[in-house]
Design brief:
By secondary structure, this protein is mostly beta strands. It contains one helix and 32 strands.
Length: 351
């Protein structure tokens, strides 16, 4: 072998070695809570195909009945609400492998934390305590991820089930199914103040989301099988009813992506898709909607590239990937899925 050939071979081998890490730029990581196993399943997911590959060491032990999970925008930390042990677990994320390492001690919450929310900068975290009828607020240490309580928990009405923080983190909307209402809170660096008396929004409000432009709020009603649209006052957070549209049976999850609203219907085991008029907020059901979801959807999560919709199924004990048609919003069920063996509770992604 000539000297030049040997040099070329060395460069080729070196290039291959360096490219062993190139796949990480074409994937993202999914963390899925499995309450029945007190654990978190972790997968590396292909950006192009949504193929799930289990991460070494998965599943990772969490607290008792982990439900909601959120990844910090830095990609360094994950937070998990443990419903039965009434606390939040902090995990460090290995940036290379994607594995999780818990950082003890856990942070106490109120009774039965069922949902988490975080501002886009990752400076504070909110926990919704269903049995405790409170919201706990925490500041986040940017270096360690540690949580520090921001005062005492703020009272809600009985048995809140879901909440939604506006992208600007100025307002928080909390659903009160027992009252058929939503309560509005102003938010100042994680500190909450109730802004108004509860507003009637339906018979059994079951899910809520705010559109990215903060012009509209969408609220699903599992009792009436509808979604209602409200305009949002950017100064006060006040809501004004605009219209209501029928969905599939028992909608329990909502997601806005671009000009489309996706509604997970647990009762009819499918997903309704609506185009959104950016000026009026009026919803129009897309052609062939609702679409098959592969099981009764319990949550909807958008992949970082906006190409796939991930759907958790309690009945199927899986998280399935559906492709999104960017022009019509139509969904197509793929062959890609993550099997969790028991019903998944929640899902978080890192970019």
């Amino acid at each position: 072998m000539t000297r030049s050939n040997r040099f070329s071979l060395v460069l080729t081998v070196l290039g291959l070695a360096l490219c062993l890490g190139c796949g990480s730029s074409a994937t993202h990581i999914a963390y899925i809570t499995v309450p029945s196993l007190n654990s978190i399943a972790a997968f590396r997911v292909s950006d192009s195909s949504a193929h799930f590959t289990s991460i070494v060491g998965s599943p990772f032990l969490a607290g008792t009945s982990p439900s909601a999970i959120m990844a910090h925008p830095s990609g360094k930390f994950a937070y998990v609400a443990d419903q039965t042990s009434n606390d939040i677990a902090l995990f460090k994320i290995d940036s290379t492998v994607g594995s999780l390492q818990e950082v003890l001690p856990r942070t106490p919450t109120g009774l039965t934390p069922v949902a988490l929310s975080m501002d886009s900068g990752g400076t504070f975290l909110l926990a919704l305590n269903q049995v405790g009828n409170t919201i706990s607020a925490y500041s986040i240490d940017a270096g360690t991820g540690a949580l520090k309580p921001l005062g005492v928990p703020v009272a809600t009405f009985a048995s809140p089930t879901a909440f939604s923080l506006t992208p600007s983190a100025k307002f928080l909307y909390v659903l009160n199914p027992n009252l058929g209402s939503v309560t509005i809170y102003t938010v100042a660096s994680g500190v909450l103040t109730q802004a108004s008396a509860p507003i009637t929004v339906g018979s059994v409000p079951s899910a809520i989301t705010v559109d990215p432009s903060e012009k509209f709020v969408y609220i699903a009603d599992a009792g009436a099988s509808t979604v209602s649209v409200f305009s949002l006052n950017s100064s006060t957070g006040a809501l004004t009813f605009l219209n209501t549209i029928a969905t599939g049976t028992q909608p329990f999850s909502l997601l806005v992506s671009g000009m489309f609203l996706y509604v997970g219907n647990t009762g009819s085991t499918n997903i309704s898709v609506f185009s959104v008029d950016s000026t009026t907020g009026v919803l129009t059901q897309t052609t062939n909607s609702p679409f098959s979801s592969g099981g009764a959807p319990s949550f909807l999560v958008l992949d970082p590239k906006g190409k796939f919709l991930y759907v958790g199924s309690q009945s199927g004990k899986t998280v399935s990937a559906l492709t999104i048609d960017s022009s019509t919003g139509a969904l197509t069920l793929t062959a890609q899925s993550a099997t969790t063996n028991f019903a998944p509770g929640g899902m978080a992604l890192t970019k």
